[in-house]
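Researcher: Please generate the 3D structure of the following complex. Treat every line as part of one assembly.
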Amino acid sequence: MPVAKPESSDSRVIAHVDMDCFYVQVEQRKQPQLRGLPTAVVQYNEWKGGALIAVSYEARKFGVKRSMRGEEAKEVCPQVQLVQVPVARGKADLSGYRNAGSEDGNDVKENVRKWIHRHNADHRDKLLACGILIVAELRMQVLKETEFTCSAGIAHNKMLAKLASGMNKPAQQTVVPFSSVKGLLDTLPIRKMKQLGGKLGISLQMDMGVNTVGDLLQFPEEKLQERYGINTGTWLWNIARGISGEEVEGRLLPKSHGSGKTFPGPRALKTVPAVQHWLNQLCEELSERLCSDLDQNKRIAHTLTLHARAYKSSDSDSQKKFPSKSCPLRYGTAKIQEDAFNLFQAGLREYIGFYGGKTQGSHCSGWGITSLSVSASKIVPIPSGTCSIAKYFQGQSTSHFSSMQSSDNLNTEATLSLPSGSECYSEVNLSEPKIDFPKEESWIKDTVPDLDLQEQKDLSSPLSEKTQDGFIQEDISPLLLSGCLEQNRSKQQRDLTKDESQFKSEYKERKGKRLKDKGTYSIIELFKSYNPNPSGSFLSHEYNRTVGGTDASSSSYSRDEEEGRREAWGYNIDEIDPSVMEELPTEIQDEIKAWMQPHKRRPNNMVKRSCTISHYFSPSKKS
DNA sequence: ACGGATTCAACG
DNA sequence: TCGTTGAAT
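Model: Done. Output below.
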């Protein structure tokens, strides 16, 4: 019973949540008729049908890939639905996706944080199991509130969580228990690891003959250090062993904003006025976003940076790079435009060198700009006591560039954005019931499983059946959360999946895939193996009930599904069986008590949710 | 004519 | 600090 406890220092529970082909989902939500169809988002359309920047999983089956041109996509998948990114100011405008990514940011963040306030579990896997449940619930909530599905990985560190989140996409979550780490990494192609997808990974392959993470194990730490430096070397040595101390940063807002555009080949900008025109466009967008940030988040950026890429048509070191330049950032569109232009000119002078001048008379400037971007960084919160923002800015020093005043247009729009991309890490401090997450944190990552009815039956069936299916023997593979509820599917999704036969075939497909995995565990199995009292476990009761309910009325759960969910997942804190507590390690008991005390009386559903987890460790569920 | 635009971290 | 480079998506 007492599972031989392998020693590994890191018993954090970390989850990585990753939205599935996010831009596509945004478009599909906007145009529901696109749901279920092979879909891709392209930006621009003039040249070869535009560039794909997001591809739905249906389209991926046809071989459509990111970084294809629209025309290529049509070749491999004629039915593919191509949705264009909106254009504003002559450039791709990503604000729609940015905004979709941040919508509800507050609620989500608050909810997630609170959910995770409590914890219990006694062993590594139980800790992970706790994470599984939280993440499953989280994903469900995300789907319900945003209509977006996501995938997740749960593991003991960030690296593994991230890895796992991509293993079963879309709309599923994957757990990596400690015991499966070695087996997982052993055959994993080295380039799949985060940070090894580029030059370093190639060097590892070419120079060291390392093709899998497992191959790395042979090299002594010192060897790696002398080849790649002290930092990278030790880092490599550790990740080969599944060790990563990287911490989760609880950041919700971006650290910078940028606006840029490329001008490939023939479109390169060859005159200063042309550059100025585009700089003005870029600065206008940037200024708008800065104002939104100021408005919504009460913070200001302090540094403006200009980047450019250029070529020199005639003459020597065409290798030379256009230098990036930065200066203090002054708010106001015109000021930003002016400063950016000055930065550009400074960079250009430097780039051209000394005889750059005007060797080619009036027509050819001798240079061309192939990309331009302006960005704002060093964004800090406004001093809280600042009553008048206008006054605050007047107090700002002027930039060192001579500049005129000008009409500041402090626009106010909403653009609260999450960190970049469509993934999100959340970390929580378990030992502290408060807002900040310190040491013992949990990483939560989350995705929505996409299971059909049959799969649900699997879930509700006796635990042993799953075991007999034979895919959970070895302990060397990641756990797949194979049980989640019909609730996880949104109304729209359900309507789309009316075709029952397609449904089943997909199910088979997935099941087959799962069998190929070295081992997958159902969530119930996981609990069973560590639960002293396997019999009528609380969990299976709950799943049975839930499945039964949704099965019959597999419509949407618009009305009292809210109630249904609570019934299934939420329990009042007072219902916690004291015997459950006694089973837990004392530290965890203490945490729970500490958490319960101050909140005891809050009739908040948050409280209920929190208690749900405790119940999962209950040996005997009280009806 | 590079998949474009964006963000971030590490490093010198 | 600034600027560059690499990486990921």
